[in-house]
Write a structure and sequence with these properties.
The protein is an all-alpha fold. It contains 13 helices and no strands. 76% of the residues lie in helices and 0% in strands.
């Protein structure tokens, strides 16, 4: 029994260690939120804030994000929105008498309506209507002066936001810079799998729901990456990551995503049997070479090493172009329907685009590769070409 128990305990330990490594970012985020909430509550008791520091605790929990950049952005938006909402509601509360239910309802509507409109114009004002409503209702419920209620609200939000930023900076800080690189590598791996599958649709029938699912998943991944890029830019502007710019890499991924959309639309129906038989092998080589390159670029980006060579991709694309040119010379494209011609020429166009976009991606991955001194491997000397595609 003892050896079996030892084996089971060993397996549990291995599983636990693997789970902690896999979910490290999530576990650290959980720790930061917990510490921020506890610190906000403790400081609120020290300052004897009303409602036992309810708004300070809620603010700390709401604004703290996975990354430092995300916490900075959420805190600044929350504080500005609170300031606008509290100031407007306090002024309106002094100028507009609201004794009685009807008067309070009218005053509340006047407080919320313009701030709700402002929230549609900028996410910075998203919390302003909520703040205005709370200032009005709390001051009316407990007989407080609207200005006093607004000041307490602003003080607690500033306290909770400040603690959230401090915890994000000092307790196992997670930079959006690192999260962004990992997210970009995952997108490249996803693009590799999707590209191989979609290119197969030109020679064999694909399920329309599968094409839609692939496009939707890729779109969501790229959109989420754009959010991380915004957070990383905030970190870069305040000096956390002074020499890293996600812009070119984000544009390279977006272009590859657009290429995938074109391929998916063109591959909705397979080519005729005669064309499919002749183009199956060269398209398979293109799919294999492009997928292998994207997988290699993902690994290189995650490891911060040089990009893999593009030789196999160039050779596969040249081989397809030669096969297609021979088909045209033989006259096999002359009798095709307009729909099939459109799909065929869309394929040729997007493969030309992939060739250029892979070159852009290669430069981007190369720039993110760091040498032992921490400099960019793609820009070791002023004469090297950095990733500055526009």
């Amino acid at each position: 029994m003892k050896p079996a128990t030892g084996i089971r305990i060993s397996n549990v330990r291995k599983w636990t260690a693997a789970a902690m490594v896999k979910h490290r970012a999530q576990l650290l985020f959980c720790l930061r939120v917990t510490v921020a909430a506890a610190m906000s509550f403790a400081l609120a008791q020290l300052f004897a804030l009303p409602f036992h520091g309810l708004w300070a605790v809620l603010t700390a929990v709401v604004v703290i994000q996975m990354s430092v950049g995300g916490s900075l952005r959420a805190t600044s938006d929350y504080v500005v929105g609170t300031l606008c909402g509290a100031a407007y509601a306090s002024a309106l509360g002094l100028l507009f008498p609201h004794a009685g239910t009807m008067a309070l309802t009218a005053a509340l509507a006047l407080a919320v309506a313009p701030l709700a409109f402002a929230a549609t114009l900028s996410p910075m004002f998203r919390v302003a209507p909520f703040t205005a409503a709370m200032v009005f209702l709390i001051s009316n419920q407990f007989g407080e002066n609207p200005i006093e209620s607004g000041l307490y609200r602003l003080l607690e939000v500033a306290l909770g936001g400040g603690i959230a930023v401090a915890v994000s900076l000092w307790l196992f800080p997670e930079r959006a810079h690192g999260l962004g690189v990992d997210a970009a590598a995952r997108i490249l791996t996803q693009l590799a799998q999707s590209l191989r599958r979609l290119l197969g649709g030109f020679t064999r029938k694909l399920d329309g729901s599968d094409i839609k699912r692939i496009q939707d998943e890729t779109g969501r991944a790229v959109t989420a990456f754009q959010g991380i890029v915004a957070e990383a830019e905030g970190e870069r502007l305040v000096g956390f990551i002074p020499h890293r710019n996600f812009g070119p890499l984000a544009r390279a991924l977006l272009r590859l995503r657009h290429d995938l959309v074109i391929i998916g639309r063109a591959a909705a129906e397979p080519l005729s049997d005669a064309l499919a038989q002749r183009l199956d092998a060269p398209l398979a080589r293109v799919a294999g070479a492009c997928s292998e390159y994207l997988d290699g670029a993902a690994q290189a980006l995650a490891a911060r090493v040089s990009s893999p060579p593009l030789g196999s991709v160039e050779a596969a694309l040249d081989d397809y172009a030669a096969k297609f040119a021979s088909l045209r010379e033989e006259g096999l494209t002359s009798g095709l329907s307009s729909g099939e011609l459109e799909r065929l020429f869309a394929l040729g166009f997007v493969l030309d685009q992939l060739r250029q976009h892979f070159v852009d991606l290669e430069r981007c991955v190369q720039e993110w590769a760091e040498d032992p001194k921490g400099r960019s491997a793609g820009a070791k000397t002023p004469g090297d070409l950095p990733c500055t595609n526009t």
